[in-house]
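Field: sequence (string)
Field: structure_tokens (string)

Example rows 1 and 2, in order.
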Amino acid sequence: MSSIKHMVIFKLHSGKENAETESFLQESKEELSAIPGVEQFEVFRQVSGKNEYDYGFSMLFANQQVYDAYNNHPVHIKYVEERWNKKVSRFQEIDLVSV
């Protein structure tokens, strides 16, 4: 099976380009990229006016089993409950494999 590119674009309650937002982005990168199996974690800032989202995360997983382990990892579950659900106002996820 092919590797999985997991991406999420989002908008924060705190808005754009301020200390609270920058802290969220940095802390998210540190927490999520440390979970076993996460490869090529990247943080993006949206520059197009074609959609309403401001930021994005992208990461790569070797296969579905590694991706499932990430989703069920205690650090990820705690992150979603304590940080993501409180700070993110809107988001969209996409998971892709090469064809």
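Row 2 begins here:
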Amino acid sequence: MKNISIKISLFINYFIFAILLNSVGIVILKSLENYHVDEIEASTLEWFKDLPIALVSFLIASFLPRIGYKKAILSGLLISFIGCLGMYYGNSFWSAKLLFAAIGVSFALVKVSVYTLIGIITETKRAHNSLMSTIEGVFMIGIATAYFLFPGFNNDNDPDAWLRVYWLLAALIFVSFLLLFFIRFEEGNEVPGVNLLDDIRQMMLLCTKMLVIVFVGSAFLFVMVEQGVMTWLPTFYKRVLQLPPNVSIMMSSVFAISLAIGRIGAGILSKRIPWVYILTVCIGLAILMVVFILPKTLNVEVQEIQKITDIPWIGYAFPLIGLCIAPIYPLINSAVLSALPKKLHSSMTGLIVVFSALGGTTGSTIVGWLFKNVGAQQAFYYTIIPMILLLLTLLVLHKLTRNNVD
């Protein structure tokens, strides 16, 4: 019963942060309209979000066991609560910068704590795989929710009406804070190292392990593909199918929903099927979709489209690639964490978050360069290259972890 309460709390936290983190594109759009900044300045919000995630994850991940994971999550919720209220009352581009800096710091605390707690409250490798996939699936549901939640607060007659969404988000954070505050649970007794310097040394030593090196490469390649597609899919639909901007944004929710379904489904399948078989099939299907489905999307005859139901059925097909790539991230995270002693989970999670952030930024940048230089029609074809490399690294990762199967 106690573990169920912990899981529910983790689900709620991840859902909230999915909305906050992935609202950056919406806030960029509002900054262009309301705060009259240019595109280059507006794009700095991504850096205000990603750099704190990477820096905080690297600097304090190994130290979190000493602080306590519950205290770390509560601290992250409190920081985000203040950031949401600051955005509402500040109503400026600087408020947006401070909001995403707060979200970045908070998410680093929450994600490292959540990933480590998964190892503490699960008993077997397959239970770890299942819970990791389910939590990441909830994260994707949160992303999809953001694409509908923020527009729901828009009002053409009141340019500041959208800011009221931060009262709702602050309320959700407050509820999550209270729920976690009154839960008691065992956080584990294995504290890494003997002092802070030794904690950092152990984290750096992780980078020398072949298992960790291969995993980092896998995580980097996956996030490069996922974020590259997620970031540029609205632009793809606007340029290729000539969809209105609002409809193009809503189509991104199809990709996010398919990611959610894929991850929750993988959580169920991974209880019965080894992760390497699931991921090999998934990557193979993803490559086939790029080869065979993407060209059909490019060649569709476009009629006048004013709403999402006007889109030809083939237009929905390519975002379903999310079903195929969805299981990769949670299952490889689970595989490597399950293969390491629990006292190293916090440090390893710090590395996961750092290289995920770097992979996401790199993927978005590369796909953006391809959109500019080879065109929206051809850019996504190049995702086949990291997917093939990812398949190779996963096979090596399986070889390194297969002796740790329960």
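free_text_note (row 2): The CA atoms of residues 230 and 252 lie 7 Å apart.
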